[in-house]
Amino acid sequence: MKLLEKGPGFQSGLADLPKHLNGSTISAGLISTVFGCTGPCLVTAAAAAAAGFTLEETVTWIFGIYVFGGLLGVILATYYKMPISGAYSIPGATLMGTALAGYSFNEAAFAFIIAGVIVLAIGLTGAIGKIMKFLPLEIVMAMVAGAMMKFGAGIVTTTTGNPLVCGAAVLAFFLVPRIIKKCPAVVAALIVGFVVAFVSGQFTADLSGMSYIAPQIVIPKFNAQLILSCSIPLAALVMGAENAQAMGVLKTEGYDVPANAMTVWSGVGGIISGLFGAHNANIAGPMTAICASSETGPKEGRYAASVVNGLTFALFGVVGVYAITFVGGFPAGLANCLAGLAMMNVLIGSLKSAFASGKFKYGAFAAFCVGLSGVTILNVGCAFWALVIGVAVSMICETKDFKVAD
After folding, report:
1. Distance between CA 269 and CA 265 in Å, rounded?
2. Of 60, 182, 246, 344, which residue has the fewest beta carbons closer than 10 angstroms?
3. How many other C-beta atoms lie within 10 A of the C-beta of residue 318?
4. What does residue 84 show for φ and ψ, rounded to 5 degrees?
């Protein structure tokens, strides 16, 4: 068995790209970009703030995930001529805000690099299938749902704290898409929230005197505790959630999925982005789903949408400082409110993936509760313990589900 699946190649992908760039593929790529650069960016900014990172460090993080995630998608989409979009793990960003609190940016870079090394090593050995049998998706997603639930609760607390601005954003999230069908809910909330904040004098960012902040390569600092509380849960998310979702979408659309290559290159992307203090640049499930949709056009040309998505992602990463400064001018609570709204579908999807199948239900519930608790044991964060305790409970109570998974 060859380690990396062979594709049509870059020459073929580049040669055919112009004829596949049309209204459908370009719009699908841009819609993916709007989705990935609004709510998820707010989530990442909120995670960086929760971890106590500076503006310069946050800009470097944004640069790493968007530039290298975007380039990863361009490379794989062009080589395999498939709508494989690259970005980063949105749930992973929320987990990092909790897991990295109290640690330095250099230690965070170390944890991100190790997560990439784990993904790369598993991809090179081809062992991902065996590992995921002992780490069921239900338990992984229950851990994610528990750890992220504070963002959902944040919608309530921020709205009660600033009902004018946050309340307007929440109403826009639910009402505007019913009036303007193609308007993404998060975009509507962002625009309305900004307008109300600006009109009411609560928007404080001074964009006129802002200077460009260049991203910096980060020297990693060893921290064994972060391998457990950050690197392992992040690697599990990349392989068990993001890549698995993208692979499932591509299989549904009839593509011969290069699973090994997607895993290996997600590991490489994680290592490179980690050098900029950014968590894994990997295959993006939601963006791949948008670009692979039948609405994008004929199957053989949909990869052009992922190329557009990747290039615009990379461009956004380069100018990310302006987005972060803009968000920094929001009134108290608005960014967290928008982050919670942006995470709503991710939370719902995580809960569905955790409990809808009926398998590993006790382990998933245990993982959810541990993740929700935010507990730290032996200086190791809740994400790791949620996985350990969830798997342990299922091994004790639900051995039949492991046999069914085999």
Report:
1. 6
2. 182
3. 15
4. -100, 110
Separation of alpha carbons 235 and 116, rounded Å: 7
Tell me the C-alpha distance between 134 and 394, whole Å. Answer: 10
- The residue type at 31: I
Contact 42, 154 (CB under 8 A): no
Residues 327-367 pLDDT 10s: 777 887 887 888 788 778 778 888 988 999 889 999 999 99
Q: Return the structure tokens found at 154.
A: 């944040």
Asked if the model's pLDDT at residue 168 lies above 80, the reply is yes
Please give the Cα distance from 279 to 62 (Å, whole number): 10
Question: What b/e readout covers 349-362, taking b as 16+ CB neighbours within 10 angstroms?
Answer: bbbebbbeeebbbe
Quote the strand ranges of 190-322, DSSP E: 281-283
Report the distance separating Cα 226 and Cα 72, nearest Å.
26
Q: Tell me the domain boundaries of the chain.
A: 10-154+208-326+344-405
Strand partners, 86: 283
Q: Is 311 exposed, middle or buried (CB count within 10 Å of its CB: 0-12, 13-18, 19+)?
A: middle
DSSP string, 18-35: HHH-SHHHHHHHHHHHHH
CB 148 within 8 Å of CB 91: yes
Query: Within 13 A of 73's CA, how many CA atoms are on the CB side?
Result: 40
C-alpha span between 379 and 97 (Å, rounded):
16
Alpha carbon 128 to its chain's center: 20
Residues 309, 369: Cα–Cα separation, whole Å: 36
DSSP 238: I
In whole angstroms, give the CA distance from residue 233 to residue 143. 9
CA 253 to chain centre: 22
User: Burial, 179: exposed, middle or buried (Cβ in 10 Å; 0-12, 13-18, 19+)?
Assistant: exposed
Give helix then strand counts, H and E, for the chain.
Answer: 22, 2
The token pair at 260 is 């090994």
The tokens for 291 are: 């670009």
CB 85 within 8 A of CB 284: yes
44-48, 191-195, 253-257, 398-402 — most confident range: 191-195
CA distance 406 to 397: 17
